[in-house]
Amino acid sequence: MTVALEQALSLNIPNPSHELVQVVRGSRSGLAINVAIHSTALGPAAGGCRIAHYADPAAAIADALRLAAAMTEKNALAGLEHGGAKAVVALPTAARPAGEERTALLHDLGDAIESLGGRYIAGPDVGSSPVDMSVIGSRTTHVCCRPVEDGGSGDSSLHTARGTLAALGAVADEAFGSPELAGRTFGVIGLGAVGAHVARLLDRAGARLVVTDVKAARRSLAEELGATWVDPDDALTAEVDILVPAALGGLLTAGTVPLLRCAAIAGPANNQLDETATARLLAARGILWAPDVVVSSGGVIHATGVELRQESEERLTERIQGIAATLRQVFHTARTHRTTPAIAARQLAEQRVRHGRSSPTRSAALPLTSRAAGPMESEPPTSHATTKRGC
């Protein structure tokens, strides 16, 4: 795995500053489990478990590194006392394991998380679910977003969508001078768990919708909402007021930006920009882009609030609505300093991380664990890890 790690660090990840990168070969599944902890300056790192197919080991490690760094920004900008991390399981094919094979993999994930002693608190991501978190939770207490019936906060997708709606109001205000969503046209790309909630919330707000998904079966939601359905290949170039990426990232590139026909872009999909320079291309075209690390933070705000801080729903709603205020601060900074929202968000996050690192009141030695955490099995972790620090 050393070669794969070196290759990953060369894949468009400038000046990586991660605290730890751990590559584990699961003793049960035999699959590579990549855990990247970017920062614990604000507190234990929090981030999802992604289970997906990658072309090669280096691509999986690189994705873990990028996603972990993005989680540091997301958590800092959300005002949470958490750093950023991510677990990425590299599947050999596009087929996802099921049954006993899936259980074996999830137990391996739990062991890898537990071996970090509370530095990383895991949750669902692409390819994993709240039910999976319960299985992982049989091996570690450091897990969030179990089903409500298991004592957890449940599916976070609705709360991610609620945060997205708050963000869209701030984007509309910046782009059109009013936070009103009614009458505006939104292009929602991806109608999965989060995207479907976003579409429904926008419909209730009186917005006009253009939607798509790679799964044709999801066209039924378009019919339910009276939305215009477009082919996935045409979604990016649809003429809309605001484009809402709600599927996988990497959608915005030097090749796709010239094709856009929208005034603004804001959605819950992670890592929408293929590289930082693409933000400048959007700005040059006069297209407002809302950093996805801000837009998509409603889920982690709610999950950690319920399970780690025991906050009331009223307080959590205030926090989620606060995403709009954070975006307005980002846009104001970008305008004032004549920079992009991407850079403005990163600078604000770095400022908050620096403040947290220097604060004498924060104790990194006391990792938080979910109040829903179940009993640990007595068998110790048996996976073998290769760790590289300070990379």
Task: Give a summary of the structure in a few sentences.
This protein is α/β, with parallel strands linked by helices and 391 residues long. 41% of the residues lie in helices and 16% in strands. It folds into two domains: 2-152 and 370-389, 3-Layer(aba) Sandwich (Rossmann fold), CATH 3.40.50; 157-345, NAD(P)-binding Rossmann-like Domain (Rossmann fold, 3-Layer(aba) Sandwich).
Polypeptide structure, described:
- It is built from 13 helices and twelve strands.
- The protein has helices at residues 2-9, 57-77, 99-114, 130-136, 157-176, 193-204, 219-225, 232-235, 277-284, 292-295, 298-307, 313-336, 341-358, and strands spanning 20-25, 32-39, 45-53, 83-91, 120-124, 185-189, 208-212, 228-229, 242-245, 264-265, 288-289, 384-389.
- It is an enzyme of class 1 (oxidoreductase).
Query: What is the CATH class designation of the largest domain?
Result: Alpha Beta
Largest sheet: 6 strands, mixed
Contiguous low-pLDDT stretches (5 residues minimum) are 8-12, 360-391
Number of helices: 13
Q: Strand sequence of the main sheet, in spatial order?
A: 5-3-4-2-1-12
At the third CATH level, what is the topology name of the largest domain? Answer: Rossmann fold
The overall pLDDT, averaged over residues, is 89
CATH architecture of the largest domain: 3-Layer(aba) Sandwich
Q: CATH superfamily name of the largest domain?
A: NAD(P)-binding Rossmann-like Domain
List its salient traits.
alpha/beta, Rossmann fold, 6-stranded mixed beta sheet, 13 helices, 12 strands, 16% strand, disordered C terminus, Glu/Leu/Phe/Val/Trp_DH_C, NAD, nucleotide-binding
